[in-house]
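Hi,

I'm pasting everything inline rather than attaching a file, because the server keeps stripping attachments. The sequence lines come first, and each chain or strand is labelled.
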Amino acid sequence: MTLTARIRRAFGTHWYAWTMVAPVVLVIGVIIGIPLVRGVYLSLTDANEANVERSIGMNHIPATYHFTGLDNYRAVLTDGVFWDRLGWTVVWTVGCVSLTFLTALALANLLNRRMRGRTFYRLALILPWAIPAFVSVFTWRMLYNEKNGILNKLLAGGGLDAVPWLNDPTWAKLSVIAVNVWLGVPFMLVALLGGLQSIPGELYEAAEMDGAGAWQRFRHITVPGLRAVSGTVILLSTIWTFNMFPVIFLLTRGGPGDATEILVTYAYRLSFVDSPRNFSASATWGMVILAVLALVAVGYRRALRKQGEVW
Amino acid sequence: MARTRSERHWSASVGLHLALVLASVVAVFPPLWLLVTSFKPKNDAFTTSLVTHFTLDNYTHVLTGTSFLTWFGNSVVVVALTTVIGVFTAATTGYAVSRFRFPGMRPLLWLLLITQMFPVAVLIVPLYNLLASLGLLNQPLGLVLTYLTIAVPFCAWMMKGFFDTIPVEIDEAGRVDGLTPFGTFWRLVLPLARPGLAVTGFYTFVTAWAEVAYASAFMTGEENLTLAGGLQTFVNQYSNDWGSMTAAAVIIAVPAALVFAFAQRHLVAGLTAGTTKG
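And the predicted assembly:
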């Protein structure tokens, strides 16, 4: 069979499927593919606001930036700023994900039993999810306000000193993590609750008959039963937190100084906040971030495989 | 004899409720405080008391004295388009990968997963340039396209999980009755996947309604901002209008909360279908 005939036949059998996925492939190809290729290219140049193609009034000024090879990457990787930011980004990601997961796991276990007021608790606990994140972040900024915020007013009422929530490097770090955990718990809680409900109740009853205590039941029934759900939500939440832009951008703008700046907000700052805009450096940071994330995902997948997960 | 699980010791019961009440207070307090503050006069924004002088001034000011309604309109256009197109494409994609075995399926599944990983920072500059050259900066369409790439991959995974739970026999019956594959999808399977559509619709809505980075970068000029950009203008390095901020924030949160209330019944089913069987 010739190649064209083979393609024609494949098209004949699969064209329904291909037509159905075509819009997604097209949009992803154009909006992610083209920018990605261009991003790689920009990261190999010295493009910035002053030398890219632009129009001022009627005058069209052609681009004058040059190809510089791997210079940008060398600059980023030998710069202490990158390693500082990476360190904090890792602390931020691990801190947020583990606290979110443990809180959600505890709450899901509390909620997953018959009791009075269950619906009320469930609704209250997922409320943060119903509110757009940037609205919540602005609310927290108000609560954290050093002179007038309610948190410090309450502390003052208890005779305690005001806490510089967003103005001291250490407190600011704790504050942004707290907000992100607050935002992230509902999603995890709902996912874990779903996982818990899919564990057959007979398993617990049988274990109880055999005299297993609460901890043993949790350890040997709940934990394995939740493994598939937790694997996926932890990976998703790691990726989301690593790239969590709004919380840090809107709460502290990366400050005080650059204490809470994670890799993503730093790359954004390079091209949209700082002047002159440094497009090539920003693109380079973007590529490095992508590489770090890819490593995380591959490593994570391998770890899951070792435990015998099919994912 | 072993105690049955419904007969909990009273101290365990108290502990359980205490923990849940505490957690609920932490979850509910910030939004509640936002609501309370929005009804206070501007100068009382930071008092610890509940509303002493109830006023709607903040709301009147936001609605009549600022560009809030323009931003709201911009957001509604962007979000409505994103949700409708997003849910439809996520459903067709999810259906195709759930039902057909076709060349290119595995790479597609991987592509959908990998796009989840793309940080804003990688794409934002080149995307900015691309949209600029297409004349789509400050255009709702530019944001819609961008948001589709964020929402659709994840939604397609969730929809695949949903379609996997619908028996294939239904498709076969439709085929026997002479429906085309698309007809089967549209008239038989899609109605059965309504909870999935609710969840993906909710997710797309929330993603688009709450996105900040792209919206701040691509939309400039007071009349082009969406809500995320507009809200930032009330409280920034130049002004501290907490009164307007709280009122605007409440108005922004209400539609989101309504959509959420509508979709939340299906959330548990949707997420577990999407995350465990993905």
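Chain B touches chain A through 94 residues (CB under 8 Å).

If the labels don't parse on your end, tell me and I'll reformat.
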